[in-house]
Input
Amino acid sequence: MNIQIFGTKKCNDTKKAERFFKERGIKYQFIDMKEKGMSKGEFNSVAQANGGLENMVNWDGKDKDLLALIKYIADEDKLEKVLENPQVIKIPVVRNGKQSTLGYQPDIWKGWN
Output
């Protein structure tokens, strides 16, 4: 398994995801979304596996103005705006090759090889 966890150090679900893999002795790579974010390719791969850009955004997030902007700007501009503001992406994003999940999903991770 080649696990990547995209999240933030302060996010409880990210911490729980890290603990899930640690307890099972599964190595993972942690990517801090505050420092690095996701590349366009990584984002597109995860979005494709999770039903598109709309599902990647945490619409219940704190920055209502930014979320409204993302919701109503032209579709071709949404990706750039989300990548510029990784705080609107649902975390943790956990990747295992082409598979990925949004949020804390231990039941799905258990099925990964």
Summary: Strands lie at 3-7, 28-32, 93-96, 99-102. The mean pLDDT is 95. The domain at 3-110 is CATH 3.40.30.10 (Glutaredoxin).
